[in-house]
Amino acid sequence: MLCTNCFQDECRTTTISKDVVINGRTQTIGDVECEKCPSCGDIVFTHLQSLALDKKRVNLEFSSKPLLTPAQLKLLRKILNMNLEEICQILHIGKNSYGRWERGELETSPSMNLLVHQLIERFPEARVNLIESEMQAEIEKAKDRYLTDSVSLGEFVRNVLRATKIIIDVACDKLGIAAGALERIENNDLPPERIPASVSANILKYFQLTVDNLRQLFDNTLKIQVMRQRISFMHTRTTVYGKASESTTARSLNKVLERYVSEEESIEQPSVDPEYLRKIGTFLQDGTEGRS
After folding, report:
1. Domains plus CATH for the chain?
2. What is the pTM of this model?
3. In this structure, which of 98, 105, 123, 178 has its CB flanked by the most CB atoms within 10 Å?
């Protein structure tokens, strides 16, 4: 076959290694047959060679699906709002099979694991919460949108989680905190230095931030807290009572302060303690994660 790139030589059959993207990661397929021009080096694939490459890629994609843990299987049902009977009907499996996988009584076979992955891929919210590469890609997109000069830590975290549809259970597990602590962070209710340094290190890694990004988020949070201390009373209307009312009031007050601080330039700018930032750096170097 004459090379259609340089028209100087006949292409010759050879084998090469080719990089492909599988589940968000670049992987190399070896011994890929192709036609290569000895003069210009141009590479082309015949129909059969292209088909053989696709088979290798699909086989690699299917075999590289991580084995889902019992916790992930349970989380999938929660995300899809399905009971055991409903998800077994969708997957066309026995009534008790999924429940035994969830409880860890039975390990999913490679074929069943692939079947559940195919279900996950049909629901964007399931993909982003259960597939790490999807989660990180969505966080990166949301970060580019919401990381501004005036945004506080709470507003940033709240907006990113809402935009990506990452659920509270997953976010808390990744950050190493309880749901109550996450709510306080979202409401800018915790002074930065009172967030365990290990948790702040997790926040930095999870949301793909730099130390400078985190410092600015902390400083903007401190501005909101300065204003909160100056407020003696704020009336809010709510149709709920007790703890739910307290939570609603805290969210409302925080959003009012976020809006005010972002527009008011005369507010003093406090700064987070440099020693606290150094502690975060220590946790980043050690790779230590904490739970609050």
Report:
1. 12-63 (3.10.20), 70-130 (1.10.260), 138-286 (no CATH)
2. 0.72
3. 98
